[in-house]
Amino acid sequence: MNPPTPIEERRGIVAALRRVPSKAWLQIGVLVALLVLGFVLLRFTPLGDYFARDRMIELLEQLRGSPWSPLILIVVYVVLAPLGVPMSPVVVGGGVVFGPWLGSFYNTLGLVLGAMAAFYVGRALGRDFIVALAGKKLRRAEMIFERRGFWPLVQARFLPLPFWLVSYGAAMAGVKAPRFLTTSTLGLIPSTLMHTYFSSQLILNPSAMMGASYILVWGAFNVVTGWPTIRQGWRRRQRYRELMKQRQG
To answer: What is the pTM of this model?
Structure first.
C-alpha cells in the first residue's frame, strides 16, 4: 500500500476534525482557557510576583505561624496545578519554611493532590476531544500504554516536563485514575524529597559541594527509575533480532 500523499493527509485531518462533536470542542476550549488564565495570572497580575522564589519564601514565612499554613500550602498546589502554573517556587518555599522533612511531606501531599486535580480536569475537558479525534488509533495506543506505561509514568515525574503536561497527557491518553495516582505518588515521593531537601539547603547554605550532590542524586534517580524502561527496550530489540535471524535462516 502506497503511503498517503500530503493532500490525502490534510483531507484526513480535516475529516477527523469534523467528526469532533461541538460539546468536545467546547470542553477543549475551556481547558485551553484555563491554561491561558494561568499564563495571564502569572505574567500580567500581582500574583506573578509571588512566584519569584524570594517572594514565595517571604509569603510562606508570614503564614508559618498559623496552624492553617500547611493546609494553605496544599490548597495552593491543588488550585494552581490545573492552571499550568510552575510548581518549583512553591516546592522551594515549602522546603525553606517548613524544613526539608516536614516540607517534603507537605510538598508531596500537595503535589499528589494537585496532580490528581489536574488529571480529573484534563479527563473531564480533554478526553472526549481526543477520543473523537483519534478514534480506533487511540484504543490501540491505550492497549500498548496499559502494558508498558507504568514505569514511564513514574519516570515522567523526574524529567523536566511541565507538571500540568504529565497530568493532562495521562488523562487524555486514557490512563486509569488508580494507576495515575500510584505512579504519581511513586514518582513524586523521592523526587519531591530530593528537590525539597537540596533546594532548601542551597538557599540556606549555598555551596558548590551541595550543588554537585544535587546533580549526582538527580542523575542517579533518573537512572534507577529509567532502568525498567531501558531493559524492556533492550529485550524487545533482542526478540526482534532473534525473529529476523529465524526468518533469514
So the answer is: 0.79
